[in-house]
Each structure stands twice: as structure tokens, then as C-alpha cells.
Amino acid sequence: MSIEIKVPPVGESITEVVLSRWVKNDGDAVEMDEVIAELESDKATFELTAEQAGTLKTVAAEGDTLAIGAVVCKIEDGGAAPKSTPAAVKEEKPAVAEDKAAAPVAEKSGESYASGTPSPSAGKILAEKGIAADAVKGTGVDGRITKEDAQNAEKAAQPAAKTEAPKVSVAVPVAGSRNERREKMSPLRKTVAKRLVTVKNETAMLTTFNEVNMKPIMDLRGKYKDQFKEKYGVGLGFMSFFTKAICEALKDFPAVTAPIDGESVVYNDFADISIAVSAPKGLVVPIIRNAESMSLAQIEKAVIELATKARDSKLTIEEMTGGTFTITNGGVFGSMMSTPIINAPQSAILGMHNIIERPVAEKGEVVIRPMMYVALSYDHRIIDGRESVGFLVRVKQLLEDPARLLLGI
User: 359 near 350, Cβ under 8 Å?
Assistant: First the structure.
């Protein structure tokens, strides 16, 4: 008895998926609940498992777009079907060897050693004329080239020397490769592209910039990183400081985390912080729930867990649904400054960038400090300039004086 394995429901808004990869091949033996394929929707990647043990019979191919409920494969009772072995190939090597052995060896021609050898006088004449001996046919005994042959060779050789070789047109190769290839966009990439265009068209997006002196945080990390890792089992990174600073700043500027819903503005008393992560199949944005109530160590652990799941394509839809504010860190790729695009339906996003040592003025003196540009893109329909600038300045103050994060001032 065989059963059909169909595309399971993976979310209310998802109507189709793409069969991105077969983990098992047609004819393989599979166990109960063993992963046999990967399905990719416009939001996440899912694993398709076997509903019984048996032999896999594939129905769909990699790259096929399948509706929810469509048949992906069948599993038949019994072990794996023996793979068909190609018919035994006849051993031809002995036969070839025999053919070679049976083939008669070509007999030597009747030409002797003297054939084509010029006499001393003929050789001198040929050398003076610049004619090779093998270009002259000898008429002497045993084919020996005589003096007369060498003298007559001038008439035959001269026209041959003047004959121009036929011109052959050779195509000149173009330097560099000019190949091109087409790849079908993944559902995730298509969704990202569609949403980004929608945000640009449907929001009044602006970006405000500031810079942060990262020396206080770097000094704090350098002083306590060993004790922090020993106690909590995770490293003390920049993301936890930024997340904590944003949560504190949102308390003073709640409009920054308030999306538009129809004709209403929804204000939240919690902070679900979305962290943009570059995954193998595209950008994903998992969420740290209630980040305002978490410690630096808890935030670091959540970031590591979500980033690992993103790289392994293990994020669930629930882990990427919602969010009230987004952080994106282009600095890990070397970005100095950028204008991040809002993660709809959110109203704002903070962009972190790389840390560069630059000369800055402190107390009337020029000093070198590790500086980072930060950018806040926001929806001007909800957030005014005063709120956007005030929010970013508040984040800057908290980061440049980390003690405020612990004291809440």
C-alpha cells in the first residue's frame, strides 16, 4: 500500500510553495518522520517529512511551484527498490588487444637507406640553393639524388617558394567572458522585492542621521567581556547595547513604534525588535519578543539563536511575524552610511554601520575616536521631524553613556 505526501498548510496567507530541494532521491528507502524534501514559501523554508516508512517515489521535481494540498511524492511499502543496474558491458579491451595482435604489421617500403640521400656534389648544390633534400626526388641508384637532380630542382623549387600560402581568416576572440544565465527568483526574493517597492510607494519615508562615539561601549566590553562570557555563556556584542538603547528611547517616543492601521495609529507598550539577518536564500527579519524586559545577556542569546536558525533555514513563520521596530547592521559588510528601507507595516528602522576611527573634537581638542554613523528611516505620516531626531539623539546618548542603560536614566 502506498500513501501520497501532499504539501501541508504552512500559514493562513500562503497558497503555494516551491519544491526547493529533494533531500532523498527517487527509489530511496525512508524512515517514518525522516526529512525527504525542503519546501520554500515567500516567508520561510519548511521540511517535508515521510508519513510512513517505505520506498520514495517522487512526483514533483525541484523548482516546481506547488499549491497547498498538491501531491509531492508517494511512499510505497517495503524497502528501497533495488536500483536498476546497467547491462554488463562487454569486455572489449581483450578484443581490441586481439585485434591489434591480429593486425598485420605494415611492411617496410622498398626504399633503401640511400633513398633520398644526395651525392656529395648534389648536397652542395642543394645547400647553396637552400633546398631541403627531402623535397627532391632522386633518380639515381636506389633513389639517390644525383647532381642533375639537384640542378633541376631549382626550376621546380623556385616556383614553389614563390607560391603564397592561401590566406585563412581567423576570428579574433573577444577578451573576457560574455556568458549570461537566468535563474528563477525564489518566493522569498519575490516577496522582498514586492514589499520594498510597496513601502517606497505607500509611505512618506525620510531618513535622519547621527554619529555615535563607540569608545565607551568598546571600553566596557573590553573590561567585562571575559566575566560576561564566563557567567552567561555568550559574548557581549554591540547588538544587545543597541537593542537595549532603542527599547529605552521608545519609552520617550512611542510614535516611533506605532504603525498605521486603516485610519488609526496603533501605539504599543511593548517592544518586539526585528533583527535583519542575511540568510543563504535572502534577507530575513526574525523578532526578539518583549525585548524591553530582557537583559543584555538574554538579548545576546536570542540574537545568536535566531541568527543560527536563519543561516540553517529553520526559522518559523511565527518567529518572523509581527515586530514593532527593526535594526539592520550593514556595518558587518563594510557599509559606512546608508538609508535603510522601512520594514512594513512598521514605522521606523535603525541602520547601524561600520566603526571607523576618525578625528573628533572633545573639550576643545581634536582626538581620535571609533565612530559609527547611524541612520533612522521613518514614516513621516506618523513620525514628525522632532520625534525622529529626538529619538535618535536619545539612542546616541544612551550608547555613549552605557551606565544610563543600567540605571534607566
Answer: no
Kindly state the percentage of the chain with pLDDT values over 90.
Answer: 38
The pLDDT assigned to 89 comes to: 42
Q: Which residue has the cell 544587545?
A: 240
Provide the CATH number for the domain formed by 2-76 in this structure. 2.40.50.100
Phi, psi dihedrals of residue 273, rounded to the nearest 5°: -90, 120
- Which of 33, 149, 380, 401 is catalytic? The answer is 380
99 is annotated as an active-site residue: no
269 tagged catalytic = no
Every domain of the chain and the residues it spans:
2-76, 205-407
pLDDT of residue 399: 95
- Distance in angstroms (rounded) separating the CA atoms of residues 270 and 381: 22
* Cα angle 223, 307, 24; round to 5: 145
Instruction: Identify the active-site residue in 26, 77, 384, 401.
Output: 384
Mean of pLDDT over the chain: 82
Cell numbers at 100, concatenated: 591489434
Question: Percentage helix, strand, coil, to 5, in the chain?
Answer: 35, 25, 40
Q: pLDDT tens for residues 209-259?
A: 999 999 999 999 999 989 999 999 999 999 999 999 999 999 999 999 999
State whether CATH 3.30.559.10 applies to domain 205-407. yes
Give the pLDDT confidence score for residue 92 in this predicted structure. 46
